[in-house]
Design brief:
The chain has 506 residues and is an alpha/beta fold. Helix content is 32%, strand content 20%. It contains 18 helices and 26 strands. The strands form 7 sheets. Strands 1, 2, 3, 4, 5, 6, 7 and 9 form an 8-stranded mixed sheet that branches. Strands 10-16-21-25-26 form a 5-stranded mixed sheet. A hairpin with a 2-residue loop joins strand 25 and strand 26. The chain is globular and about 75 Å long.
Length: 506
């Protein structure tokens, strides 16, 4: 690595190996690390820490940490520390299979929390002190300010509150990213909060760098390693049909005068279906769109290049390796069109409501009345966590949830009588879309919502079964506002656990 990436002379003198830096982290510490959906996470120190933990366990010594991040990270962080059995508690969001297995086995404690709440809850002192922060940056300026890399996440909070800080300077990250960030330092604790002066998705209200007292930085580690995000699978017929239904609906809303011709700021969750929607927008005829979202994925880069999307505000990237190379090649172009913020701003409920975002997120299942489960399979097995979907769902202009109508080769229906876990109540859900159609739940009482979902979203294999449930519940339910047969409401899930399918008589 060239010395130019570390331009502060004092901090250049603190360059050490990843192993030496990891040795500064002690058992039982609360460690806050950078990273958001596989971007901008530290690449070397977590691996060295995992090796140190493994050595301690071989010697019979207990060594675990409490781990906080912005969101999910990558195998070099979550995966390595989970495999080493080095995490006592994890928050706020994860996607690692080893961590997930341990969470569901009950050997790793996990706190699922709205992403907009993390920074403020840490500031409130709800989780105790942060002992060490490990943060990746793209460079250190002469004045000691830190150039963020491909995610901002909670890094401002980690740097402000940690007792000691370890910085990884990654020269794989493009130097041209300098200037893309907007780090707002105007937040405060109640009762001293003031309105956030952001009115449009492309407003800049902060600094292009992070601040940290150099005296707190105990080590600087030089790295050269790529962000790791899984490539998106090509859109299949199911994803394309879901995207078509949604885009037709957005055009209908424009025609009705409920949306402007350039829509409202878009928020998109990460995954193949949201990415298919973004791809569909490229040929939809919409122009001059904006995004106010958590994550930029491949489809948004395509929209920016084509001019369909004029600006995108985010806190991190979820780019395939190919899209990452495109981003680096044309960094000057994207620097003028992408703004990266802290996640307490990118996910801020008041800003989401004021901007009128159109929120598009995936789900595991929805029930007859529009309650949505985003996090748990069969009621108790966590998948990843709620992430930022709740920040947007409750506060957006349109709260849209997308899913194939079935899973596990048709053995699971995405529309069930009652969800086995509630993340988004019926009050926060506007639209549900499957490959069979789009259910517009706005302004409908519960039994009418059920009819919309059955007619438009349920897979044909399950339609008669769910209609039979509704008919009997409408006659025999204790109350008729949201009719349910309580002994049967979760029977579909139990049937799958017992037989491997939700279908009766299969």
């Amino acid at each position: 690595m060239s010395a130019e990436r570390i331009r502060h002379s004092l901090l250049r003198d603190r360059v050490v190996s990843a192993e030496a830096a990891a040795a500064m982290i002690q058992p039982g510490e609360t460690v806050a690390m950078s990273g958001f959906t596989g971007s901008g996470y530290p690449k070397a120190v977590p691996l060295a820490l995992a090796r140190r933990i493994e050595d301690a366990h071989v010697d019979g010594r207990e060594f675990k940490i409490r781990l906080m991040t912005g969101a999910s990270t990558a195998p070099e962080l979550d995966g390595a520390l989970a495999k080493a059995d080095g995490i006592a508690l994890r928050m706020p969001f994860q996607t690692d299979p080893d961590a997930r297995q341990r969470i569901n086995a009950g050997t790793l404690d996990y706190i699922d929390i709205h992403l907009s709440h993390v920074a403020q809850h840490v500031w409130f002192g709800f989780y105790g002190d942060i002992d060490t922060a490990v943060v990746e940056v793209a460079g250190i300026r002469e004045d000691g300010s830190l150039i963020p890399s491909t995610s901002v996440g909670n890094n401002k909070t980690w740097l402000d509150l940690a007792k000691k800080v370890i910085i990884e300077v990654n020269d794989w990250q493009p130097e041209g990213i300098d200037g893309m960030h907007d780090v707002y330092y105007g937040t405060a604790l109640p009762p001293h909060r003031k309105p956030i002066p952001l009115v449009h998705a492309d407003d800049r209200i902060g600094d292009t760098s992070l601040r940290c007292d150099p005296d707190k930085i105990v080590a600087v580690v030089r790295t050269h390693g790529p962000d790791r995000n899984s490539p998106f699978t090509p859109a299949d017929a199911t994803s394309e049909r879901i995207a078509e239904h949604l885009i037709d609906f957005l055009k209908h809303e424009v025609a009705k005068g409920r949306l402007p011709a350039n829509l409202l700021p878009l928020q998109s969750g990460v995954g193949n279906i949201p990415n298919a929607v973004l791809n569909g927008l490229a040929s939809s005829g919409f122009r001059d769109l904006s995004a106010f979202t958590e994550v930029i994925q491949d489809g948004m880069l395509d929209l920016l290049r084509s001019g369909v999307l004029k600006v995108a505000s985010c806190t991190g990237f979820a780019l395939s390796p190919e899209a990452n190379e495109e981003f680096k090649r044309n960094i000057a172009f994207y620097r003028e069109r992408i703004i990266m913020r802290t996640q307490e701003i990118s996910n801020h409920p008041e800003l989401v409501r004021r901007l009128g975002c159109i929120a598009m997120n995936g789900m595991i299942e929805a029930d007859l009345y529009g309650n949505v489960n985003s996090t748990h399979v069969m009621g108790s097995r966590i998948m990843n966590g709620i992430g930022g979907s709740g920040d947007f769902a409750r506060n957006s202009f349109l709260s849209i949830f997308l899913s194939p109508s079935t899973a596990k080769k048709g053995s699971i229906s995405a529309i069930v009588p009652m969800v086995s876990h509630v993340d988004h109540t019926e009050h926060d859900v506007s639209i549900i879309v499957t490959e069979h159609g789009l259910a517009d739940l706005r302004g409908l009482p519960p039994r009418h919502r059920a009819r919309q979902l059955i007619d438009r979203c349920v897979d044909p294999a399950y339609r008669a079964q769910i209609e039979d449930y509704v008919d009997r519940a409408s006659r025999a339910s204790y109350g008729k506002h949201t009719p349910h047969l309580l002994p049967e409401a979760l029977s579909w899930h139990q049937r799958w656990l017992d037989t491997g399918t939700m279908l009766k008589g299969a």
